[in-house]
Design brief:
With about 350 residues, the chain is an alpha/beta fold. Helix content is about 45%, strand content about 15%. It contains 15 helices and eight strands.
Length: about 350
């Protein structure tokens, strides 16, 4: 029995993951974190209609001998689908108040090292400046030698992680609970990790950007399922770009209105209190002012800018990929801008 409550709270956010939830939980319960720390696991099944919650409950029973040594596990069902809502519920209502570190993970990944979770936790605990620790995300198509042409292009187009400016991959990360509990994410956000990263790096837009607030633990990794078709890639990119437009419009407003004594988190709470639909209304106002000019110019030329520092031989080698990626970008950008203009870019998009 854990007398003082768990020291780590793990939230597994799941929506209609019947095909993946058991595999994900199996890899989670093989982690050495359950032998080293008092740990709780909360599977947040949000808006599931496919039996995800039932399978998760059975998996908890099957693995009880592993997680019950020093902690607890449960499945919580939410009626509303959406990762931002599930994130808010886990961080603010479900996770143990005693836990100084939270771990957020998706329900369709596989942990590749036995110490993935414990390493993320200890790396974060050992770095007082950091608010978040991430691992290396690995596409399933990167493991193995036989790949289609489309898969080879996807792997080749994957940028290397800059350890000095690490992204916050929403699939898996550890975060200090004191930092997380200052934040309530707008439910309308279709993608949460980039928005969360911006809030953390700037202390809610009250200080200059500090990339050291997110650290990379390159010694551990997790695997995720890459998109498998051009159609899936287009939907994924459209989803990412739509969310980026919404986030960038908010960032501009935050930098205008935030001050050392007034953070973005405080503004969000005030705006939410004034109007439940403050975010769509604000975005629509900006759309009316800007028209189709919703993406900065460097987005449209980003594929070519990556080629500049390369040698001529490498430029020629990567030129076909850059050309195809640019053509895809144009189609994605125009469609994403239209989604934002039509008010279709909000809330949960589904798989």
């Amino acid at each position: 029995m854990v007398v003082n409550g768990p020291s780590i709270s793990i939230g597994v956010l799941a929506h209609n993951e019947k095909l993946n939830i058991e595999k994900t939980l199996k890899s989670l319960f093989m982690q050495d974190v359950f032998e080293r720390f008092s740990t709780e696991v909360i599977v947040v099944a949000n808006g599931c209609t496919d039996g995800t919650a039932t399978l998760a409950k059975q998996s908890l029973l099957n693995n009880q001998a592993l997680w019950s040594k020093l902690g607890s596990a449960q499945v919580v069902e939410l009626t509303m689908a959406g990762k931002t809502n599930a994130w808010n519920e886990f961080v603010h209502k479900l996770s143990a108040r005693s836990a100084p570190i939270l771990v957020l993970m998706d329900s369709d990944i596989t942990l590749l090292n036995k110490n993935t979770i414990s390493s993320l936790v200890t790396s974060l605990a050992d770095n007082s400046e950091a608010a978040v620790c991430v691992d290396r995300p690995v596409k399933n198509i990167e493991i193995g030698t036989k790949r289609t042409l489309f898969q080879r292009l996807l792997v080749g187009a994957t940028p290397a992680i800059d350890e000095h400016n690490a992204p916050l991959c929403g699939q898996l990360y550890s975060i200090r609970s004191a930092e997380a509990r200052q934040i309530t994410l707008p439910r309308e956000l279709p993608v949460e990790d980039g928005f969360l990263r911006a809030l953390l790096l700037t202390h809610g837009f009250t200080r200059p950007n500090n990339a050291r607030r997110i650290i990379l633990d390159s010694s551990v990794a997790h695997r995720f399922e890459s998109v498998g078709t051009l159609r899936e890639l287009f939907k994924h990119e459209r989803w990412i770009v739509s969310s980026s437009i919404i986030s960038m419009l908010l960032y501009e407003r935050f930098w205008r209105e935030c001050a050392p004594d007034r953070s973005a988190m405080e503004l969000i709470a005030r705006w939410q209190k004034e109007s439940a639909d403050w975010l769509p209304r604000y975005i629509q106002t900006e759309v009316q002012k800007r028209g189709w000019r919703l993406l900065p110019s460097y987005w449209w030329t980003r594929r070519w800018s990556h080629l500049r520092p390369l040698s001529w031989s490498k430029k020629l080698k990567r030129l076909p990929i850059a050309a195809m990626a640019t053509a895809m970008d144009m189609f994605v950008f125009i469609t994403a801008i239209r989604d934002v203009r039509k008010g279709r870019a909000f809330r949960y998009w589904g798989r």
